C-alpha cells in the first residue's frame, strides 16, 4: 500500500490492507499461467466480498497510477454498496 496514504491511515488506527496481486509479491500462480487483468479485478472483488462478510465496516479502495485504474474497475464490478473508490 502506498506510504502516501496507507501508512498515515494505519498510524491513525485505520485497518489498511495491501494485496499482492496475482503474479506479484508473495502470490504464487500455477507454472505456465499468466494472470489477466480481469483475473486481477476478480481477485480484488472476491477479497472485498469476503471482507464485507467478515466485517460490515465501510470499505474504501485506493490506488495510484495503474492501481487507480484497477480500483476503478473493481468498484465498477463489485456489488453495489460494497465500497467507495478513490484513485490517485
From TrEMBL:
InterPro entries: AB_hydrolase_fold, Hydrolase_4. Residues 6-83 form the Serine aminopeptidase S33 domain. Pfam families: Hydrolase_4. This is Serine aminopeptidase S33 domain-containing protein. The lineage of its organism: Bacteria, Bacillati, Actinomycetota, Actinomycetes, Kitasatosporales.
